[in-house]
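Sample entry (189 residues):
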Amino acid sequence: MSRTERTREQARAGIAQGQAPAAEAGWRRIPLAGDRVRERDTAAQRRADERTPLALRIQRSSIDPVRDSVTGELFYDVADDDETTNLSRRGLCIRCERPPEIGARVLVQLRFPGEAPIDVVGLARWSQVAFVPGEHGARAVALVGLELLGGAPRALERYGRALGQLARSAASDDAAAPDSAVASSGGRR
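Predicted structure, serialized as tokens:
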């Protein structure tokens, strides 16, 4: 069924474009192929802290043992090729090949530029599949949201300080960027 035919059927049924019946009826809008999907509403996610986009290599290890689905044996998962996508004071998002189970506690070792490694404990809250384009097509990876549970007081202090410095440098870069793109008053640079 084409998009035009679907629109005609919706018009006959009394459903306006982009609307669904009342929410109390349990309906929700499912995007059609080709529809532009909105980015997640940050207010709806109840974010209290600003996220800072940053790609850092991290080392992650499970705190709780994981049961192998084939052998049934317990083991501790260790990954040293994970990468952050963004950070905040209360959590971080990582890109990884083998995601931890939701609810699993993990030890994450972050290496900020010019800093000694910082160890923090996180709890896997959500995960989703993402596709990373590559030389021979795309590969699937997992994006995992980790809530920070704690760590050594000094490590948490260093994490907060490094995150603050990154946020300040990003803000100063944003403030400087518009000036550099605008021609001078004389029309010459």
